[in-house]
């Protein structure tokens, strides 16, 4: 392999005043120059785990960038990138940005309608797809056809586009890495890096325009936290899709730049083995995964002896009290230390024994769910963000975790509340706007009343919040409040979270807009159909009279990505569910 520079160790946390790099390709290629031999990404291929070093990554980026230029990819061209998590995604992403093109990462699970909308809206005429099936779907979905289609596993069919190519051809010849590095140093921080299409829990997905500065601001914001956690040289187990805005920023750019090796998980069914094999220091996930993990642990506990069950529950009780207060008594501290050795150490070992942070985002994390893991000595912290903000806005540090909040805004992020309680944020992390949608952009980003013309605009997050002692607590989506017939305002996020915290309920959506009260659609957990009624009764006992579930109905099938009722990151599309089951919901009021 050609030399890409001297190998050096140490963390790359940037200068105290911010990152020394002005663009994402400059950051990664500069780090590769300094430490070419260190592992960057690990992935499963051909029956075993394969590693890509930083030096191999840089050479592949240079090769791909040179080929794409020869193929006619121009600055500003939007290029669809549809792939599972694999190193080729990273290489293609960075190579496109390096030559001034705009990456459009897109979910492999998208429907043909989704692909057609994104292709039409973005104007992309070039696409990179991992499999032949995905390539064929993109070719069919492109409203005006594709000019160039590249397959990662094999060349697409020749009829798919005027020009087709195999990834082996794209990276087959060496590129001029020193020249490319000199070029990426000139990329301005404000240049558009990517279009990330929102997952669309409500309406049609919109393309969020993220410049380099937005994701670099996220990187700067967590650098001090990562340094305190000593993440350099550790492992990050990645299982969210790279097309998700969070994983795209964190898994492709942020954590690798901080010295963390990324391991792409083979799937949720293999997590237990991968925790043991790789002993990750950090994982990130949506609440649904943590619900599944808790259910598995509770199911396993039921097989233990009554004595072991009592030890487990006592360890959970004391661990949670230690985290939340009041302080433990002397006797409780002794008991807690013993239970830490007998119970919590074994739980931590099941997760590899090296976890410094389990970060949850993407949806509201129920405090009872986070309390379960925290009480068992697992550092589950809640963060908050939006695609429109790079996407990370706030996070709880593991050493100062207040679990009913989403933590403090990152350094460099300003946060305030509008008069109606909506959370507003501003800073270099904020998007440039929505692609070709000036009306939506004007509604989301605008200066505060009375602001000077040159003041930075505020992003209107659409989330209702409180800010207390500098910490942010998200209470609901502004547009999702249910207003009942009596004029009462009810939070659907709160009710759905409480319902899904019950082991008998896998999924839930509540309704009641303009109706006498709240009703629910529920998906029972496997084999738990008979327990739905008692579960809802337990939830109702914790609610005010206006919030209580008056009636409920089971759905014939779970909400899924395939039936259009879940996003690829397992968030329920409330509007889609309410529309699909409108007759059943109306029937609950008769």
TrEMBL record:
The keyword Disulfide bond does not apply. InterPro entries: AMP-bd_C_sf, AMP-dep_synth/lig_dom, ANL_N_sf. Residues 32-435 form the AMP-dependent synthetase/ligase domain. It catalyses: a long-chain fatty acid + ATP + CoA = a long-chain fatty acyl-CoA + AMP + diphosphate. Coiled coil: none annotated. It comes from the Bacteria. One of its GO terms (cellular component) is membrane. Keywords: ATP-binding, Nucleotide-binding. CDD domains: VL_LC_FACS_like. GO terms for molecular function: ATP binding; long-chain fatty acid-CoA ligase activity. The keyword ATP-binding applies. Gene3D superfamilies: 3.30.300.30, N-terminal domain of ligase-like (3.40.50.12780). This is Long-chain acyl-CoA synthetase. It comes from Belnapia rosea.
């Amino acid at each position: 392999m050609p030399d890409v520079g001297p190998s050096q160790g140490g963390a790359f946390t940037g200068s105290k005043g911010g990152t020394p790099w002005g663009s994402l390709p400059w950051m990664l290629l500069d780090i590769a120059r300094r430490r070419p031999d260190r592992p960057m990404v690990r992935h499963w291929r051909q029956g075993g785990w394969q590693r890509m070093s930083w030096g191999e990554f840089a050479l592949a980026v240079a090769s791909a960038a040179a080929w794409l230029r020869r193929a006619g990819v121009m600055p500003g061209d939007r290029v669809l990138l549809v792939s599972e998590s694999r190193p080729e995604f990273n290489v293609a992403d960075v190579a496109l940005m390096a030559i001034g093109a705009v990456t459009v990462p897109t979910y492999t699970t998208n429907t043909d309608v989704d692909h057609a909308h994104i292709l039409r809206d973005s104007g992309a005429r070039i696409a990179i797809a991992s499999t032949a099936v995905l390539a064929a779907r993109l070719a069919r979905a492109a409203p005006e056809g594709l000019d160039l289609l590249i397959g990662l596993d094999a060349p697409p069919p020749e009829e798919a586009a005027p020009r087709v190519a195999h990834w082996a051809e794209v990276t087959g010849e060496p590129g001029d890495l020193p020249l490319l590095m000199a070029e990426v140093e000139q990329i301005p921080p404000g240049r558009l890096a990517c279009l990330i299409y929102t997952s669309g829990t409500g309406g049609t997905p919109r393309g969020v325009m993220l410049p380099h500065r937005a994701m670099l601001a996220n990187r700067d914001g967590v650098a001090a936290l990562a340094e305190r956690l000593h993440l350099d040289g550790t492992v990050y187990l990645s299982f969210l899709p790279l097309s998700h805005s969070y994983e795209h920023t964190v898994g492709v750019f942020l954590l690798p730049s901080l010295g963390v090796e990324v391991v792409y998980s083979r799937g949720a069914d293999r997590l237990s083995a991968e925790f043991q094999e790789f002993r990750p220091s950090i994982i990130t996930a949506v609440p649904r995964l943590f619900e599944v993990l808790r259910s598995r642990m509770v199911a396993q506990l039921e097989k233990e002896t009554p004595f072991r069950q009592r030890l487990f529950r006592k360890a959970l009780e004391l661990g949670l009290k230690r985290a939340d207060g009041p302080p433990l008594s002397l006797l409780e501290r002794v008991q807690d230390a013993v239970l830490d050795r007998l119970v919590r150490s074994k739980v931590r070992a099941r997760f590899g024994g090296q976890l410094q942070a389990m970060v949850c985002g993407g949806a509201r994390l129920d405090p009872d769910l986070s309390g379960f893991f925290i009480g068992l000595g697992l550092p589950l912290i809640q963060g908050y963000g939006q695609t429109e903000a790079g996407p990370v806005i706030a996070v709880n540090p593991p050493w100062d975790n207040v679990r009913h909040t989403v933590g403090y805004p990152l350094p460099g992020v300003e946060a305030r509340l509008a008069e109606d309680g909506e959370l507003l944020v501003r800073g270099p992390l904020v998007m440039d706007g929505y692609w070709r949608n000036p009306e939506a952009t004007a509604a989301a980003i605008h200066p505060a009343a009375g602001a000077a013309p040159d003041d930075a605009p505020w992003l209107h997050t659409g989330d209702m919040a409180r800010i207390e002692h500098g910490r942010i607590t998200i209470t609901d989506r502004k547009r999702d409040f249910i207003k009942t017939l009596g004029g009462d305002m009810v939070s659907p996020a709160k009710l759905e979270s409480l319902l899904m915290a019950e082991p008998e309920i896998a999924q839930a959506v509540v309704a009641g807009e303009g109706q006498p009260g709240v009703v629910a659609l529920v998906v029972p957990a496997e084999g738990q159909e008979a327990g739905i009624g008692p579960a809802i009764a337990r939830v109702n006992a914790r609610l005010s009279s206006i919030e209580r579930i008056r009636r409920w109905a089971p759905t014939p099938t779970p909400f899924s990505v395939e039936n259009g009722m879940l996003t690829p990151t397992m968030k329920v599309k409330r509007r889609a569910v309410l529309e699909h089951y409108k007759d059943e919901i109306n029937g609950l009021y008769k």
